[in-house]
Amino acid sequence: MPLRYIAAFYALAYSVVALRASRHATQVRRLDANSTKYDFVIVGGGLTGLTVADRLTEDPSVRVLVIEAGPFDEGQRAVLVPGAFDQSEIPYYWNLTSEPQTSLGNRSFSVPMGKAVGGGTVGNAMVFFRAAKGDYDSWEALGATSLAYDTLLPYMKKSESFTAPEQSFAEKGNVSWDESNHGSTGPVQISYPNYFYPGSANWWNAALETGFDSAADINNGNPIGISWFTTTVNATSRTRSDARINHYDIVAKTRPNYHILADHTVTKIILEGNKTVGVDYQPTAGGNSSQIHATKEVLLGAGAIQTTKLLQLSGIGPRSLLESLSIAVVSDLPGVGANLQDQPNGVVPYTFQDQINPNADDLISNATFDTEQEDLYYAKREGAWTITRSFGETVALFSLCDATADCQGMIATAREEDPAALLPAGTDATVVAGYKAQREQVLEQYAGDNVPIGMIHWTTGGEAIVWLQRPLSRGLVQIQSNNALDNPLVDYRTLTDPVDLDIAVANVLKNRQIMQAPSMAVLGPSESYPYGNNITDKDQLKSIITSNFGPTTGHVCCTAAMVPLDKGGVVDTEWKVYGISSLRVIDISTLPMISSSTPMATLYGMAEKIADVIKETYTTA
Ligand SMILES: Cc1cc2nc3c(=O)[nH]c(=O)nc-3n(C[C@H](O)[C@H](O)[C@H](O)COP(=O)(O)OP(=O)(O)OC[C@H]3O[C@@H](n4cnc5c(N)ncnc54)[C@H](O)[C@@H]3O)c2cc1C
Ligand SMILES: *[C@@H]1O[C@H](CO)[C@@H](O)[C@H](O)[C@H]1NC(C)=O
Ligand SMILES: *[C@@H]1O[C@H](CO)[C@@H](O)[C@H](O)[C@H]1NC(C)=O
Ligand SMILES: *[C@@H]1O[C@H](CO)[C@@H](O)[C@H](O)[C@H]1NC(C)=O
Ligand SMILES: *[C@@H]1O[C@H](CO)[C@@H](O)[C@H](O)[C@H]1NC(C)=O
Ligand SMILES: *[C@@H]1O[C@H](CO)[C@@H](O)[C@H](O)[C@H]1NC(C)=O
Ligand SMILES: *[C@@H]1O[C@H](CO)[C@@H](O)[C@H](O)[C@H]1NC(C)=O
Ligand SMILES: *[C@@H]1O[C@H](CO)[C@@H](O)[C@H](O)[C@H]1NC(C)=O
Ligand SMILES: *[C@@H]1O[C@H](CO)[C@@H](O)[C@H](O)[C@H]1NC(C)=O
Ligand SMILES: *[C@@H]1O[C@H](CO)[C@@H](O)[C@H](O)[C@H]1NC(C)=O
């Protein structure tokens, strides 16, 4: 290891540690938490929890406690440095396994979810882009008027500081953006890497050859086309901008009223009748329970799985489920835990006759290249280590009719399906009604050309990844006992609507089309097992997808949806839980449908909006 690298690395590590030590002023121990009165108790110190905590504590008279099951991270390279990103070295995820997926060959999958101060933003892939305007429009049409595009756009801008790339680099790399879409004073740092692998040009041109246009700005509400994606990376330090850094560390010193109790797990919401008064919690490592009271509200930001679990354990959920577990029903809400969505995806492996080096795989296979890029990163914050390790820089987002000439046939098939029959047996009529309304929106999007239904990413190495951005299938989360320490059942029910499988085939074939276009063909790519360029039979492709796709991108959502009660809703347009006072759900659970993007950009904006809605509640009251 060259000496200059060691010096540079310790310089970075030192600055991180030094900053963090002084930022812990408001990290509280359990006893302190117990002896302080809080206006708001926030359950879950993830993306949304910390954003709301930050904004509420801007008023020094408002006292907020965040209780987070996971720890503060230790500033590891695998967390902070894009080029060192490695999930296997990041110890900040929950350990949960899904039900066997009947439409994925009965395989079970790990359920990726962040568990740290910062939640998912500490160990995620940092891919950041807003949804299509049509996503926000569809949420609005389903009743989530607070998620309308014009409502959230100013908040999405407020949340971010966007740093544009250097003009000459942008021109060389085909990076395009429109500064007027972006914020420049928010805490979440957004930027593009400052390097691209040479093969990126081949893929870019191949996509153009198959009819893609380049999108003007992936964040402008019309992301269809090929684009560089923005990342949650501080453009100066070239390190991760996670919610712990951008909504806690940078304000902690000046906020004696902002407390975080890490390593503690909330086990129940304490209700007096239908009024929320506090929560039960205990050390995550095990130990006695305590209670904490909130004089104003409890805000649930525990993510789509754990928020569902807490609601159900506390008597807020489907009556039949609660009664079967001897839990007293406080609010019978059939929608709690229903409507689970994520973005299924699969890797198509490739070999090349004439692959171009360097590419993303060389960071793994060529130690000389990896060290050279590591040195460059620590010396000048440049090069391949500014990109999330194992990824390239660009994506293709496309509509259904871009993916396949058979789009109208698929839409017609979907129209003939019985929505009720596609949901788990015994699903409540209100949830079915909500699902029917969603399908109307989805099928309209399938017929249109402004909401992506698929995404393709070539890493520049031996993998292309193909996603379903807008699936029709719906899963569920349910507690299996009234013991707060037991894991809930998570069933993604991926591809249980057969139309999703048809779309997966179309997306795999779309990827093949790009890879076979002249600019990629010069590299001599061929799909490897279990795929193969000569496998064109749709049934054969379906069987490969069934055995090889996975159910999740870590974007699990929508299990406490903001839709009307008669559509299976759980929260109203102020994120308040129906039938309960002083309780809101503030996290990704409240989206009515998954966004066709990655979720962070929308969630940071949504959490900013929620903070304002809460502030208004108490200034006008
Ligand atoms: C592996 C992975 C990769 C991803 N990649 C991307 C990406 O590239 N781009 C993108 O936009 N999104 C990505 N995501 C998704 C994104 O991180 C999440 O959608 C986002 O963090 C959700 O925000 P949230 O506030 O709803 O929940 P989270 O950020 O998940 O926060 C919930 C927090 O609540 C805590 N908690 C849960 N239960 C309890 C309890 N009972 N008591 C106390 N605390 C509790 C959790 O430990 C967690 O810290 C990824 C996620 C994962 C897991
Ligand atoms: C917290 O306070 C409650 C009473 O409000 C008490 O019963 C409990 O033992 C206290 N817990 C701790 C850890 O101090
Ligand atoms: C994860 O859970 C499984 C089964 O519930 C258990 O066997 C395993 O030890 C756990 N792993 C970790 C790292 O906690
Ligand atoms: C999956 O499991 C179900 C129930 O156990 C069974 O009926 C079905 O045949 C299995 N499918 C596959 C592909 O193994
Ligand atoms: C950028 O686009 C032009 C064509 O518009 C193409 O010639 C060039 O190779 C592309 N480069 C990259 C890095 O995508
Ligand atoms: C971004 O990184 C620079 C350099 O380390 C640092 O000075 C700055 O405070 C960071 N910005 C934020 C918002 O964290
Ligand atoms: C838990 O509570 C029991 C009974 O009150 C007490 O004896 C024990 O010391 C407590 N344990 C801890 C770790 O506080
Ligand atoms: C490995 O990387 C080094 C440094 O970039 C380069 O000179 C060398 O050609 C690469 N080796 C292979 C086999 O690609
Ligand atoms: C496709 O090609 C591979 C290798 O060239 C061969 O092994 C396989 O049998 C072929 N499959 C079909 C369906 O022709
Ligand atoms: C709580 O219950 C009371 C009495 O039944 C009712 O009047 C009130 O509307 C309920 N609160 C909410 C938020 O539903």
TrEMBL record:
Keyword Translocase: no
Superkingdom of the organism of origin: Eukaryota
Cofactor(s) named in the record: FAD
Residues that bind FAD: N124, A125, M126, V127, V266
Any GO BP: secondary metabolite biosynthetic process
UniProt domain Glucose-methanol-choline oxidoreductase N-terminal: residue ranges: 38-344
Signal peptide segment: 1-18
Keyword GTP-binding: no
This protein's UniProt keywords: FAD, Flavoprotein, Signal
Pfam families referenced in this protein's UniProt entry, alphabetically: GMC_oxred_C, GMC_oxred_N
Domain Glucose-methanol-choline oxidoreductase C-terminal: 471-607
GO-annotated molecular function: flavin adenine dinucleotide binding; oxidoreductase activity, acting on CH-OH group of donors
InterPro entries: FAD/NAD-bd_sf (IPR036188), GMC_OxRdtase (IPR012132), GMC_OxRdtase_N (IPR000172), GMC_OxRtase_C (IPR007867)
Family under the similarity heading: Belongs to the GMC oxidoreductase family.
Protein name: Dehydrogenase xptC
Naturally occurring in which organism (per UniProt): Lachnellula suecica
Chain's gene name: xptC_2
